[in-house]
């Protein structure tokens, strides 16, 4: 199967080969003396096509003392930009803004002295600026713009041969101008001919040395070979280590490649092919082999047409060959049928793990057309439709089809991807087993669906029964809680009665005393009424009787004692009212809706209710901290506090202490109720919250108090923990979530 990575490698190889061919042609044209401007214009066109850019420039950097640098455009697309010079003021710091056009891009490259990439993929403007150098000197600039996918650093390696070639051409152009100037001077001094030869030799030397590809010039009459350092360097040799001759070259060629190379040369000499283009292996200095792409042509003949001189290039393609071999190895491992064909349906190449999968004999498939296959016409039309779309639009075309074969009906999947301007690669996979599996899977899914429907009906019935049982259980649980609550209320009844009896007793006593006081004051009040009714007829006898009665009933004492009796009676009445309110709060019916409750208030109310259980043998110490409200059922929370306080008092055998502490920890309200009682063993702790478990004598406890309390706290999404050791008392810790504000 061809993957995205493999297609990328193929595209890279084709692009590299296209660029190398263009560079080789440019080098040959330059050697033949073509104008640098035309060569650069053709190279720019190729690079724009290979990178997908829409515009670009190649220019020579001009500098002079005391003047800002400028760029003389040698090649430009669009072409109307050519034959102009851009003034480029140099900045000492890096540009602050991204380039907006090619002119500012070139200025940025001059300022930084390094490649400039601008614009992410999908941006409105994308630029790539690259300096051109030759022998350490910056000679020019290349600017590319508007690549749809943006530019990345990977393009730098790909474009390096192009940059080297352009740098060499610009350097050669500069040397050419220098040569012309020198030629003019030589003509003035009558030494023009000798100087021209020297400059031509220098020009050739500079061009050859500036190229990274191997360049060679063969004198076909003497067999003398001139090669640049890159030609020797790619084989690991330095200058002077090899005799430069045609014989040496023949000795370096792999024996299996000699015949093909000689055949191509002979065909070129006869005019059958315009150019020798041969991939061959050359032995390196270390004994290994390098794959080299050789391109050459005859550039000089004598008057009889005999070849005198052949010029060519060598490019190291070892890496490409290795990648191609890896790709071929990968394809050979595929169990699928792989076909490469043109848009007209002609088969160009194929790979078949099983030759019997081919519709035509293997020896006839190359060059045949898809129209010649024994497929149904409708299937062929479908294949052509997907083939054309894949080549035109670059999409991955995937479709299934079925064929009636001698062994029965079989299914296939075709995947088509463009592999060139007018060709595509198709991968055909037999998916019969997958189709049969899908059919079996559909049958199983249908059967599972029927089973699922049956199970859902069964679950629905059981869920209804479970819901009914749950409702009954909740009702029973509510009854159980109410029963425990009534049991607790019964336990507190005697204590509450005793608590109420004390204030009621002294209220009754005070009322009896007040009744006597009122009886003593009535005669005095009657005399006062007569005196008030007849103030003018007051006699000394009446006043005397009034004074005697005042002393006899000791009215001064009564007036002093009566307010105290009333105040004591009011205190007793308020005490009774508080106990009644606490009892009412404890016994109130739960509304079913949570309420915002102050836990400190609930604790204080519960303490009043159970005080008779505590006061005779417990000293209660409170440490109430500020608390946020808690969303809860106050009746249930009060029942928990009541159970824990009564249990704490029962755990104290003679005299002890109960400590109640409240605080806030994060988002939780914490209540600690600790006693100094007899404590509990680990065995008792393990069963403490088990329903009907009690440590009290038979008949004194139901064993539901702590179990119900645990359930209430859990229902409120809280926790209740206990720590206890025999003889060291117990501490119950309740944690409830604070209400969200």
What does this structure look like?
With 741 residues, the protein is α+β, with helices and mostly antiparallel strands. The chain has 18 helices and 23 strands. The strands form 5 sheets. A 6-stranded antiparallel sheet has the order 3-2-1-6-5-4. The protein has a 5-stranded antiparallel sheet with strand order 8-7-11-10-9, with helices on both faces. The protein has a 5-stranded antiparallel sheet with strand order 13-12-16-15-14, with helices on both faces. A hairpin with a 4-residue loop joins strand 12 and strand 13. Helix 4 runs antiparallel to helix 5.
Low-confidence stretches: none
Strand order of the biggest β-sheet:
3-2-1-6-5-4
Oligomer category: single chain
Which percent range fits the helix content? 40-55%
Q: Strand pairing plus helix content: what structural class?
A: alpha+beta
Number of discrete helical segments: 18
What is the overall pLDDT average?
Answer: 79
The count of DSSP E runs of length 2 or more, i.e. the number of strands, is 23
Shape: elongated
The main β sheet shows up as: 6 strands, antiparallel
Strand content: 15-25%
Q: Report how far the terminal alpha carbons are from each other.
A: 61 Å
The radius of gyration over CA amounts to: 55 Å
Organism: Archangium lansingense
Domain Histidine kinase: 495-740
EC number: 2.7.13.3
Catalytic activity: ATP + protein L-histidine = ADP + protein N-phospho-L-histidine
Task: Label this structure with key terms.
6-stranded antiparallel β-sheet; 23 strands; coiled coil; histidine kinase; PAS-assoc_C
